[in-house]
Design a protein that fits this description.
Chain lengths: 112, 114
């Protein structure tokens, strides 16, 4: 069975304190790995898609990386506005509209 | 920008009522989805549709049905609402099937069944 596990469940950082969130996966065949940001009471907002091991993508203070077993979301010098829940999801069956299997998320709090 | 609009943000319904959740997307996307999100359980797929009048069950379809009469609109129906259907419901859409098609989400609908 395909599984996506995110760790830690919750993370508290001081403003400027860099860290990483982890998304590990066990799937039969990875087609794509997605990162989303979700603010309280709102829908997930798309951040990145990664397709193959070694790929990296950046957006402002965020950088996502991918290996054959996991993905990391690195947050450099975070600010309070980066506080949110970060979700990762894997696309496991190409050509199927079923598409994504989600992890449970990491709730990030950045303190001023 | 892709826009997925859920018409009702907050609803309170009584047990046994029929509930309609409406979703519209404005980007001519072929695929549309309904998820529910619960603390500790993450996002779970209820139903999805890959074309007008076409639908497939997701992981938790029991107690739900869907309707897609037009490409831009996808409705989730709770035939007889129950308290265990209290949740946040998320509609989403994507352009087509295949590799790397990003799923875009609406703002969510909070349903409370009392």
């Amino acid at each position: 069975e395909d599984q996506v596990t995110q760790s830690p469940e919750a993370l508290r950082l001081q403003e400027g304190e860099s860290s990483s969130l982890n998304c590990s996966y066990t799937v039969s065949g990875l087609r794509g790995l997605f990162w989303y940001r979700q603010d309280p009471g709102k829908g997930p907002e798309f951040l990145f898609t990664l397709y193959s091991a070694g790929e990296e993508k950046e957006k402002e203070r965020l950088k996502a990386t991918l290996t054959k077993k996991e993905s990391f979301l690195h947050i450099t010098a975070p600010k309070p506005e980066d506080s949110a829940t970060y979700l990762c999801a894997v696309q496991v069956v190409a050509g199927s509209a079923r598409q994504l299997t989600f992890g449970s998320g990491t709730q990030l709090t950045v303190l001023p | 920008d892709v826009k997925v609009t859920q018409s009702s943000r907050y609803l309170v319904k009584r047990t046994g009522e029929k509930v309609f959740l409406e979703c519209v997307q404005d980007m001519d996307h072929e695929n549309m989805f309904w998820y529910r999100q619960d603390p500790g359980l993450g996002l779970r797929l209820i139903y999805f549709s890959y074309d007008v009048k076409m639908k497939e069950k997701g992981d938790i379809p029991e107690g739900y049905s869907v309707s897609r009469e037009k490409k831009e609109r996808f409705s989730l129906i709770l035939e007889s609402a129950s308290t265990n259907q209290t949740s946040m419901y998320l509609c989403a859409s994507s352009l087509r099937q295949g590799l790397g098609n990003t799923i875009y989400f609406g703002e969510g609908s909070w349903l409370t069944v009392v």
